Here is the input.
Amino acid sequence: MSTVANDTVARVFYTGKFEDGEIFDTNQGGEPLTFLVGHRQMISGFEEELMGASIGDERTFKLPPDRAYGERDENMFQVVDKSVFGTEMPIEVGMSSYAQTEGGGMTMFTITKIDGDQVTVDFNHVMAGKTLEFSVEVVDVREATKDEVAHGHVHGPGGVQHEVSKADSCGPGCGCN
Here is the structure.
């Protein structure tokens, strides 16, 4: 029987809660979450807690910030001119959006303060600084294929669906070409 380890594909049902018991995410009643273990698809603490689990195992664990999304970093706050937001959409405190990074990627931020023409934005992950509790049931584990390991993601059901004509590459946006 397979157990959760690096380079395996795990399928799980889970519920994630904050310390106060508020559920922030769950897939109970839906499809299992499918991921390639050891390839940075999940927060590290989540994978670490599932290592060695077998099909049918249920685990409940708490992840402090350093094993989840990290501590809040005051250096991740930035004050920008209100004009960078344009006029298409009104902005307000608590609103989240995305900004393009210097490398061309996208990163999420949250508006924390508006003072005249100055807007303070927070680039910390929204769950940074929070302890998270997970209840997880492992419903399937299998060895990853060589292609899945090479590409860094799961193929087939629950993963990336490749077109037959692109069998040897994932196509644009995949990152494994």
In short: The longest helix spans residues 44-50. Strands lie at 8-18, 23-26, 33-36, 58-63, 77-81, 96-100, 106-115, 118-122, 132-143. The first strand starts at residue 8 and ends at 18. Residues 74-122 form a domain with the Thrombin, subunit H fold (CATH 2.40.10.330).
